[in-house]
Specification:
The protein is α/β, with parallel strands linked by helices and about 450 residues long. It has two domains: about 180 residues, Beta-Lactamase (2-Layer Sandwich), CATH 3.30.450; about 250 residues, P-loop containing nucleotide triphosphate hydrolases (Rossmann fold, 3-Layer(aba) Sandwich). It contains 14 helices and 18 strands.
């Protein structure tokens, strides 16, 4: 049985918009849009910078074409067609209203008439449609073209960052036999704060303070979890605890991080051209960061050979580095990092990789997105390399209320009471670990 609601109308905030009442003829809209584009070609885009200019030109075009249209446009239809064309030319076309809804985090387009939205953690099918596949391709090409990207048979999969900061991933045939598929991760300018995370029961205040002290002290932290679990949000918050005098270099495929720090140097990878020239991978950028006098290196997400260079950076003095990783459990983090490193360099010895990994990674924070859309830290662990093989040692855990696993039914954040390896490592560096130890001994908090 599906956990998702039935088909829903497009919504702006909580106000439904009845798209079924739109009676404007699609061919007429396309005709008017083509004529408007002809005017842009003749007079230049500057003549249509404002919606009022577009509306005035559309009225002129309708007056000219009215003898040939064979129908009289009503005032509501004229307003609707103007809104649609403005969205087509300078906005997000039929899905503009989804971009206006701040509660929507993901927009998924599985073809011209199969559009879904993730609204407050619940995936809902909308009744929004593109006219046809050609209309959808024009929409994709316009968004990607504005970012200097091209989607074609030789490059049928493209990632890009939209002007508002949202991330778009597109796939076309032959990789997607059913036609164009678009996935958009919305970017919201509202800064997620530490208090926001605590108030939403993402973690307890004691766990937040524990992570704050680890970040200030320079512990190397990996944040792991499934898609949409809050990995980047947590990383952004933790970056605010990095001392102000330190220099941070961030490395990403698409710029998404919003670090709360005044000395940040962002680096973004680049695909090669049609001849595969001019590419700069994440691995290239990690090597570059090592030459940039970075106090801390933050990789937005490790998913390939760059993990090897990240481990080397952590082992040669870049303490306090942060990164995220897709993994479903703390023990899986080590297995996945080991696999990625060995794939990146098949000549490496597995034992060497394991030694690099366990001496570099000190703390794993596991986050999870539950079936009801709620997000929480489910575990904080340290890596105790005093054992052979090294032990993943749980320090904090989230215990859902009985019968409420996966749902927002409350629960407790608990400390395990286990001996903590990270406090010993930080004490050896000269850090005061008194408060860290106290937090581990006194944390048993009901969710509010």
């Amino acid at each position: 049985m599906s956990v998702y609601p039935a088909t829903t109308t497009c919504q702006k905030d909580d106000n439904p918009i009845d798209l079924s009442s739109r009676s404007v003829n699609k061919r007429l809209r396309r005709l008017l849009q083509d004529r408007l584009i002809d005017l842009i070609d003749d007079d230049g885009i500057d003549t249509l910078r404002h919606p009022s200019d577009i509306k005035a030109r559309l009225h002129d075009i309708v007056a000219t074409l009215s003898p040939h249209i064979g129908q009289q446009l009503s005032a509501p239809d004229m307003d609707q067609i103007t809104t649609d064309i403005i969205a087509e030319i300078s906005g997000y076309g039929p899905i503009t209203c989804l971009f206006e809804d701040k509660s929507i985090t993901d927009i998924l387009i599985n073809g011209p008439s199969d559009i879904w939205a993730d609204k407050r953690g619940s995936l809902q099918k909308t009744d929004i449609e593109f006219d046809d596949e050609e209309h959808l391709r024009r929409f994709i090409d316009r968004l990607l073209g504005a970012q200097g990207k091209q989607l074609d048979a030789s490059r049928p999969m493209v990632d890009a960052r939209l002007p508002d900061g949202s991330r778009i991933h597109t796939v076309i045939p032959p990789l997607s036999p059913k036609g164009p598929v678009v996935s958009i991760r919305r970017f919201h300018r509202d800064q997620i704060t530490a208090n926001t995370l605590v108030d939403s029961n993402f973690l307890s205040r004691e766990m937040l303070r524990f992570l704050e002290l680890l970040t200030v002290s320079g512990a190397n932290i990996v944040i792991a979890g499934n898609s949409g679990a809050g990995k980047t949000s947590l990383l952004n918050v933790l970056s605010g605890y990095i001392p102000a005098h330190e220099r941070i270099v961030t490395i990403e495929e698409i710029e998404e991080l919003k670090l709360n720090h005044h000395h940040v140097v962002p680096l973004v990878s680049r695909d090669g051209n049609s001849e595969d020239r001019g590419a700069f991978s994440l691995r290239d950028l990690v090597k570059t960061a090592l030459r940039m006098r970075a106090d801390r290196i933050i990789v937005g997400e490790v998913r390939g050979a760059e993990v090897l260079d990240m481990l080397q950076a952590m082992n040669v003095g870049h303490e306090g580095s942060l990164t995220t990783l897709h993994a479903n459990a703390p023990k899986e983090v080590l297995n996945r990092i080991e696999t990625l490193a060995l794939i990146g360099d098949t000549n490496l010895n597995r034992d060497i990789v394991r030694h690099m990994m366990t001496s570099a990674i000190q703390v794993i924070v596991q986050v999870r997105r539950f079936a009801d859309g709620s997000r929480r830290i489910t575990s904080i662990c340290d890596i105790d390399n005093r054992f052979d093989p090294p032990k993943v040692n749980e320090l904090f855990t989230f215990l859902p209320s009985s019968g409420q696993a996966g749902h927002d039914g409350g629960g407790r954040f608990l400390s395990s009471g286990n001996d903590c390896s990270i406090t010993h490592q930080l004490a050896e560096k000269g850090c005061d670990v008194t408060e860290l130890c106290a937090l581990l001994k006194d944390s048993n908090h009901e969710q509010q």
